[in-house]
Amino acid sequence: MDFCLVLPSLRWPITMAQDNEPDLQVEGWLKTLGIVSLCQWDVLVFQYRHQSSLVSAEDISRFLGYATAEVVAAYNSLESSGLVERSRVSQGVRLYQVTASADHCCQHDSLA
């Protein structure tokens, strides 16, 4: 049987089997990166897998199943955290790129 658990500090629902407990260490790592919503995490994973993408926020929102406003807000947060970079809009699309360097990631690995 599955249930939906809302972690108060992250404010996103996580569906899991009842016998699994939330991994608080992972939650802490995400918070260290500035990831506070599941949408931000999904956008970051999408961007990491695609490295550079020339698309609109509307396209990404359709790919991920979120409202466009949520994806735009996630990109705003990820960009201000220095994890992704966006070009200016040109003909309705932007160039999105992951910018997190190895040094940035290694700083977070030391938290383990």
Describe the structure in brief.
The chain has 112 residues and is α+β, with helices and mostly antiparallel strands.
What features would you highlight for this structure?
single chain, Arc Repressor Mutant, subunit A, alpha+beta, three-stranded antiparallel β-sheet, 5 helices, globular, 112 residues, disordered N terminus, two-stranded antiparallel ribbon
Assign the CATH superfamily.
Winged helix-like DNA-binding domain superfamily/Winged helix DNA-binding domain
Measured as a percent range, the helix fraction is 40-55%
Over all CA atoms, what is the radius of gyration? 15 Å
- What proportion of the residues form beta strands (DSSP E)? 15-25%
Q: What is the CATH architecture descriptor?
A: Orthogonal Bundle
| Sequence of secondary-structure elements | EEHHEHHEEH
Distance between the termini: 32 Å
How many β-strand runs?
Answer: 5
* CATH domain class: Mainly Alpha
Q: What general form does the structure show?
A: globular
Biggest sheet record? 3 strands, antiparallel
Using the coordinates shown, work out and report the CATH topology: Arc Repressor Mutant, subunit A
The structural domain count equals: 1
- Poorly predicted residue ranges: 1-10, 16-20, 108-112
Notes on the structure:
A three-stranded antiparallel beta sheet has the order 3-5-4. It has about 110 residues and is α+β, with helices and mostly antiparallel strands. It has five helices and five strands; from the N terminus they run ββααβααββα. Helix 2 (about 40-50) crosses helix 4 (about 70-80) and helix 3 (about 55-65) crosses helix 4. The N and C termini lie far apart (about 30 Å). It is about 45% helix and about 20% strand. The model is unreliable at about 1-10, about 15-20 and about 110 (pLDDT under 50). The protein has a single domain, classed as Orthogonal Bundle (Arc Repressor Mutant, subunit A).
